Amino acid sequence: MFDTMEQRFRALKTRADFCALRYVEEDGETLAVRQGVAEPLRRRLDRGAMITVLHKGGYGYAATADCSSAGLQAALDRATAWAEATAGHAVYDYSQIRLPKPEGRYLGPGAEQALDWNRKALLDLLLDESAAAKAGDERIVDWSAELSRLAVRQRYVTMGGGAVEQAFQMLIPGLSVTAFADGESQTRSLGGQYGGICRQGGMEIVSEAGLLGAGRRVADEALELLAAPNCPSGTMDLLLMPEQMMLQIHESIGHPLELDRILGDERNYAGTSFVTLDMFGHYQYGSPLLNVTYDPRQRNEFAAYGWDDDGAVADKVWLIADGVLQKPLGGEISQARARAAGFDIGGVANSRACNWNRPPIDRMANLNIEPGDKRMDELVAGIERGVLMNTNVSWSIDDSRNKFQFSCEYGRLIENGELKGVVKNPGYRGISATFWRSLKAVGNAATLDVMGTPSCGKGEPNQAVRVGHASPACVFADVDVFGGEA
Amino acid sequence: MRAHFSRLAEHLRSQLQAGEAFTLWLSAERTDFVRFNHGKVRQAGQVAQSYLDIKLVQGEKHVSQNLSLAGNDDDLPLIDRILIELRAALQDVADDPYMLLNAVPQSSERLDATALPPSETMVADILAAAAGVDLVGILAAGPVQYGFANSQGQLNWQETVSWNFDWSLYAHGDKAVKRGSAGKVWSSEQLRTEIAEAREQLALLKRPVKTLAPGSYRAYFTPAALAELMSMLNWGGYSEKQLRAKRSPLLKLADGELSFSPMLTVTEDTLQGLAPAFQAEGFIKPDSVPLISAGKYAGSLVSPRTAKEYGIAGNGAGAWESSESLDVAAGSLPHRDVLKALGTGLYVSNLWYLNFSDRMAGRVTGMTRFATFWVENGEIVAPLNVMRFDDSIYRLLGSELEALTLERELLADPGSYGARSSASARLPGALVRAVNLVL
């Protein structure tokens, strides 16, 4: 089908200055069990094409699942009509940009071979973990487990040369347990309740993610939380584990550095940014311990790829080095718009669409914190009074990505350099512009974990994209911490 | 599309083997999306998509496939192939004790296919009306279709041609007038009027900005802001399944431990809403479902699966058991008296990015956004810098709720994750004695 699509596209009639085809196929399946009963089996097959046109300074696109020659020609004509209709009324004169015409092929881990997806065996595995979570305990009132697979193949073709094919294989395991007693309930999960353990690769992810044996462990932690006191309130040190660090990076570094937000595109929906075009190259974003990279070549992370959806080649870029802001998360078009505004600040290959039926915009991909030099025991030992928090459960941040408040599933007190008892409903709040400057210790590679999200929301029309985050455990000083209702 | 959908259903009926049955759910649209920034066009395009959910049933077993349709003859061999794969998948799954499908066919049709002008004309109208101002937002326009069919011959269809223009006018920084409008008839004159009114309100946002210290303040929430608060109750709050799983933020309401103000009455009002009156298992939704009545728990949304699992009556809810056509009853405070009744406090036009800080306690946090003003003695004094609140929704809409407005607004959801939303909410504004600001 991919070669056919390329041939059909190249045979289309066009007068456009530039046009490209992005054909995407997604094939997925979800197995799930809840309370010992298999949930309905859900499968998905999604195929379609997006044609993008730059013409006379305008930009137009058209998406269709009618991949016949006639269907593609109609889409090309509609995209061209939109480019012409908006030429002269666009935020940027698109005739000033030359989008790449890349050549190549990228196969993500596991994409080169068929997945060993044994439904019956996997359903049995999920039922076993689910049963271990319940284990006859009346306090366990809801328990579920699931495993999703997703295979994505896409070809990006530019008229007059240029074709890139990419293929990805992904898995998302999950498990969640709710314990209830005396009017109080607590939910604990494997990697979060929103698909936090999502990676590229094959069936090895099932064991790497800790799904095997997770049922009993997660249930025990839910019961621990049920009996635990609320997290104390006050100003104290905060040790964030990777399952929460991913959210902290995502919301208060990733989104504020998106160049389209800085250029104002998202002000009606996802918001703007406290970061401005003049900050790059000198702004002290965090303490000197903070090193942040955009790294789409970390192959097992959820958003690894070879080229973005405007054809730019993906490479590792340091966004923040030794605490100083270096580069924005902006693709070719946003970079050109920033240059036109007098800011030649560079960017990365992050012009991405969630699927064939949405246009590419600036998105996070794999956005990581580089490991430091502290062992886990050293991170704890360096805290006189604080809380360890793990696994995000609640997130809220202002439209400039500054004032945030996050909560976690699980907390543990730290006193005089030692881990103490479990606390429930742990949360903290702060301001991005100052929070990262309080980073006082960064864990080494042994504390690092690979996380991500299958559904980062942004854009008009709305798009939920796949994002990867790898982070070590990190310690922040003097944070405003709180617990649940007394 | 309707003819194609019927043809696919007929084709599937002809392919069934003994003991097999199916349901189909279609969600289709052809939408022109035009994105604006700084009063100009950022991206303009069209998305034509049709997604079909096929559920193949054999005895007590079933499996489902979501499929993008080409909308032409290519779909028939594709469905034949999928049918083979689904039959194979049926061999791998156990009987489902909670499957419940509508056994009493009830076909229906709702066509609301008025003609819109070409989207290019609508864009030209917007650009002209927004000349010289910093407008940012999105126009979505075109037909949206929903369909249900099953092997018993039931066919339900809803088709609407509509537009939704969600936009803001920026004064400076993060200070903006936020608006949204939607309809089935386009009026350039109405658009010009709305943008002109918003231009006038920009003057208020250009006054010197005030910053509040954390603390407790009187506040008025516009219908748009109240919609954000109410949306938190829709995170499983109305779901019978989530109540049973002890995960609902309304668990303490359902158990009678907590209540809202007697002024608060909430209903799922399918009859007055924009969402389809049928659902994916073929059940027809009742015209309305009481959820909260005079501050007390009145009911929940029950999907067929939950109904079967717990042996209770369903009420046509979708799998997520979330409200799609929310109705919050009006109060008695005339809108013209809102500032006077507020006296001194916050006039909150919009809230943003709400989440639970303690779900089971109903404690919610979120931000003010766009145009939030400081009001003194019934007069708007200054725009406010954004503030974070963290408070119990049982308090805000309970002990602290002073009044709801007499007038209500119908808010059509501009959301388009995966597809254009058909959700809507009709709400009043809310005057609150105290909201707790924390940052």
From TrEMBL, chain A:
Gene3D superfamilies in the cross-refs: PmbA/TldD superfamily (3.30.2290.10)
Keyword list, A-Z: Hydrolase, Metalloprotease, Protease
Domain annotation Metalloprotease TldD/E N-terminal: ranges: 19-83
Pfam families: PmbA_TldD_1st, PmbA_TldD_3rd
Domain Metalloprotease TldD/E C-terminal: 233-481
Family, as annotated: Belongs to the peptidase U62 family.
Name of the protein in question: TldD/PmbA family protein
Organism: Chitinimonas viridis
Organism lineage string: Bacteria, Pseudomonadati, Pseudomonadota, Betaproteobacteria, Neisseriales
UniProtKB/TrEMBL annotation, chain B:
Ranges where the Metalloprotease TldD/E C-terminal domain occurs: 214-434
InterPro entries attached to this UniProt entry: Metalloprtase-TldD/E_C (IPR045569), TldD/PmbA_sf (IPR036059)
Protein's recorded name: Metallopeptidase TldD-related protein
Source species: Chitinimonas viridis
